[in-house]
């Protein structure tokens, strides 16, 4: 029995040595070979243009990533350290639902715009708290939620009732 145990330990030790990292593997990679920063999205998402027309008739244009799938919606803007001005993410819900959002693993403040089936903003959660797990919802069923950099809606004068248009929204609408 002791001989058998010694053989197993010896074999395990040799296997561990063979699987060990090569010399120098514990040194950090050169800057040019380093992994992308946490703010860079590892997933390539579809992008589209989106326009919010305010009550004065001014158009506010954005380029947004589209989160169509449950996996994309779960990932959202998590781990991103910045949301450049004029960009955001559009979460689509088909059929419309009582959407709730949170800020888990999201290090930047966001404005969340809940868009009703009629294409109008039904609620806005401004300057949300980074990393918060408090759930934020709209007023009724939403066809989409638009996330922009925190403070974007205040800066642009965007309010509840403003109209949102995008080719991405058309198939998500089910007015009842």
Relevant CATH superfamily: Protein of unknown function DUF192
Q: What's the mean pLDDT score?
A: 75
Number of strands: 9
**Total count of helical runs of at least 4 residues:** 3
Contiguous runs where pLDDT drops below 50 for at least 5 residues: 1-42
The level 1 CATH classification is Mainly Beta
The main β sheet shows up as: 7 strands, mixed
- Rounded radius of gyration (Å): 24 Å
Structural class: alpha+beta
Q: CATH topology, what is it called?
A: Jelly Rolls
Strand order of the largest sheet: 6-5-8-3-2-1-9
Q: Specify the CATH architecture.
A: Sandwich
Distance between the termini: 76 Å
Number of domains: 1
Instruction: Give the SSE string.
Output: HEEHEEEEEEHE
Q: What is the helix fraction of residues, given as a range?
A: 10-25%
What spatial form do the alpha-carbon principal axes imply?
globular
InterPro entries: DUF192 (IPR003795), Saro_0823-like_sf (IPR038695)
Signal peptide: 1-25
Protein name: DUF192 domain-containing protein
Keywords: Signal
Structure, described:
This protein has 176 residues and is an alpha+beta fold. The chain has a single domain, classed as Protein of unknown function DUF192 (Jelly Rolls), CATH 2.60.120.1140. It is built from 3 helices and 9 strands; from the N terminus they run αββαββββββαβ. The protein has helices spanning 2-19, 70-75, 152-156; strands at 47-53, 59-67, 87-97, 100-101, 110-115, 121-125, 136-137, 142-149, 163-165. Strands 6-5-8-3-2-1-9 form a 7-stranded mixed β-sheet. The longest helix is centred in the first third of the chain and has 18 residues, at 2-19. The protein is globular and about 35 Å long. The relative contact order is 0.18. Mean pLDDT is 75; it is low at 1-42. Residues 32-43 have a biased composition (Low complexity). This is DUF192 domain-containing protein.
